[in-house]
C-alpha cells in the first residue's frame, strides 16, 4: 500500500519504471491478480518434454518459456519487440533455444510443418493460418489467450466499452477462426480472475506495460482521470477489475489413413 504518497510521486515512479520483458515483480505489494487453476506454465512444460520440435510465439522476454524444465531437441521462439527479443536471447540462448526477432504482424519465418508443438501465452494477435502452416500433422497448439472484456472495468473507466474489440477475443470467434485454418479445438476453457490495484502508480505502470488495454494511453492525456482515480483509491480502497483468460488447445489433423 502507498496511501501516504502523493499522486505526483506515484505517477513519476511508475513512469520511470522499465517496460521490457514480462516480469511483473514491480507490482508486488501494489497490485494482485488471481491465477487460472489450470497452470499454463506447468501444462506447457509437460508438453515440451514430449515432443521433438517446438515453437513459442510472442515469447516476450522469455520469462514463461524459461520456466520449462526440459526443452525438445529443436526449440525456437519468436518476438517482435526488440528490447524483449534481446532479453529472451540472453535468457534462453544458454539453454539452446533459438530466438528469432521478427517484424510485428509478420509471417512466421519457418518452413511448413516444422513443429510438433506451438505455444503462446497472452498473444496480442493469433495468426491461426500461420500456426496451422508450421504445425506437423497431428501437432498441437497450446496457449493461454486473453479473453473478452479483460480488465473491462479499467478500460471503461478511461475510454468506455469496446464491444468490437471484446468480440474479437470471444472463444466462439477464436474457435471459428481455428476451424477455418484447418485446426480442431481439443480444449477451450474460460475464467475471469479478480485483479486489485492498490495505488495509482500500479494503474499507470499496467497501462504503460500492457499497451493494448488503453491503446492511446499517456499520463498527460489522461492526467485528470488518473487524478480522480487516485482520489477514489485513497478514499474507497483498491480499484477492482477482472482479467479474462482462455486456455486453448488445438490440433492439426493427421491425413486420413496416416
Description:
It is built from nine helices and eight strands. It has helices at residues 7-16, 40-48, 82-92, 128-134, 152-159, 163-168, 171-180, 200-209, 223-236; strands at residues 31-33, 53-56, 74-79, 98-101, 115-121, 135-146, 184-197, 239-251. Strands 1-7-8-6-5-2-3-4 form an eight-stranded mixed β-sheet, sandwiched between helices. The longest helix has 14 residues, at 223-236. It has one domain (7-252): 3-Layer(aba) Sandwich (Rossmann fold), CATH 3.40.50.150. The termini are far apart. The protein is an alpha/beta fold. The protein is 33% helix and 24% strand. The mean pLDDT is 94.
List the helices and strands and how they pair.
Elements: H1 7-16, E1 31-33, H2 40-48, E2 53-56, E3 74-79, H3 82-92, E4 98-101, E5 115-121, H4 128-134, E6 135-146, H5 152-159, H6 163-168, H7 171-180, E7 184-197, H8 200-209, H9 223-236, E8 239-251
Protein name: Methyltransferase type 11
GO molecular function, one term: S-adenosylmethionine-dependent methyltransferase activity
Domain Methyltransferase type: 55-142
Report the count of strand segments: 8
Alpha-beta classification: alpha/beta
Encode the helix/strand succession as letters: HEHEEHEEHEHHHEHHE
CATH uppermost class = Alpha Beta
Reading side by side through the largest sheet, how are the strands ordered?
1-7-8-6-5-2-3-4
* CATH homolog superfamily: Vaccinia Virus protein VP39
Please tell me how large the radius of gyration is.
Answer: 19 Å
Helical residue percent band: 25-40%
Distance between the termini: 59 Å
pLDDT averaged residue by residue: 94
- Molecular shape: globular
Amino acid at each position: 500500500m502507498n496511501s501516504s504518497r502523493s499522486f505526483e510521486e506515484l505517477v513519476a515512479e511508475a513512469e520511470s519504471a522499465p517496460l521490457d520483458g514480462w516480469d511483473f515483480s514491480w507490482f508486488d505489494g501494489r497490485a494482485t491478480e488471481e491465477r487460472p487453476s489450470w497452470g499454463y506454465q506447468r501444462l506447457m512444460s509437460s508438453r515440451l518434454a514430449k515432443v521433438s520440435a517446438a515453437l513459442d510465439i510472442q515469447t516476450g522476454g522469455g520469462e514463461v518459456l524459461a520456466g520449462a524444465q526440459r526443452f525438445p531437441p529443436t526449440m525456437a521462439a519468436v518476438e517482435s519487440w526488440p528490447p524483449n527479443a534481446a532479453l529472451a536471447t540472453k535468457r534462453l540462448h544458454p539453454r539452446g533455444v533459438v530466438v528469432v526477432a521478427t517484424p510485428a504482424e509478420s509471417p512466421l519465418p519457418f518452413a511448413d510443418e516444422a513443429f510438433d508443438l506451438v505455444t503462446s501465452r497472452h498473444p496480442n494477435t493469433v495468426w491461426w493460418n500461420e500456426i496451422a502452416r508450421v504445425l506437423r500433422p497431428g501437432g498441437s497448439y497450446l496457449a493461454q489467450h486473453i479473453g473478452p472484456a479483460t480488465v473491462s472495468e479499467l478500460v471503461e473507466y478511461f475510454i468506455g466499452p469496446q464491444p468490437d474489440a471484446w468480440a474479437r477475443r470471444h472463444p466462439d470467434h477464436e474457435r471459428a477462426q481455428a476451424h477455418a485454418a484447418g485446426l480442431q479445438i481439443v480444449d477451450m476453457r474460460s475464467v475471469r480472475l479478480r485483479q486489485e490495484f492498490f495505488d495509482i502508480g500500479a494503474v499507470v505502470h499496467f497501462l504503460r506495460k500492457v499497451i493494448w488495454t488503453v491503446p492511446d494511453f499517456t499520463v498527460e492525456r489522461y492526467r485528470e482521470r488518473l487524478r480522480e482515480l487516485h482520489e477514489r483509491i485513497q478514499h474507497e480502497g483498491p480499484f477492482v477489475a477482472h482479467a479474462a483468460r482462455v486456455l486453448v488447445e488445438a490440433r492439426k489433423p493427421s491425413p486420413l489413413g496416416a
